[in-house]
Write a structure and sequence with these properties.
By secondary structure, the chain is α+β, with helices and mostly antiparallel strands. It has helices at about 1-15, 35-45, 65-75, 85-90, 145-150; strands spanning about 55, 60, 75-80, 90-95, 105, 115-120, 125, 135-140, 150-155, 165. The chain has a 6-stranded antiparallel beta sheet. It has a two-stranded antiparallel ribbon with strand order 1-2. The chain has a two-stranded antiparallel sheet with strand order 3-10.
Amino acid sequence: MVRYFIAILVVMVASGCSHNYTRPQSVFNTPQSSNPSSVVHYAVQQVGIPYRYGGQHPSQGFDCSGLVYYAYRQAGYSIPRSSSQQYSSVRHVSLRELRAGDLLFFRVSPKKVSHVGIYVGNGDFVHAPSSGKSVQISSLDNPYWKKRLIAAGRVPARDGIASARD
């Protein structure tokens, strides 16, 4: 796990020092499968991809819910596209129950769920933060995110809303 975070840190620092975007190499060798750890794999592979409102693919860039949508689709799940729909489709869990691949929901703008990220473990989550930034890993201990976290949820493995593709 330490190697994973060092690799991500190196990629983030290197991409921040350059004006030309270079897609980071994968730091995982996880085979494709329909499980939350593969969701984390696909999401973390996108670190460094620029934020783009409405984006849902590495070639376009990502907004927060687009990154979640993409990572889950790559792992074999069908989930809603918007953060509010994702919020409505998950089974809510307490922060003590968090597992890698769970979704974290934030209230950045008043009165609604307006941001989503994917929990990667050890108090960190991957997300597409905002315009002018790139997909990154942040800590739930960061005062900005800690203050705005409103819920956590788990995508059901097999139900009518979010199910693994057969």
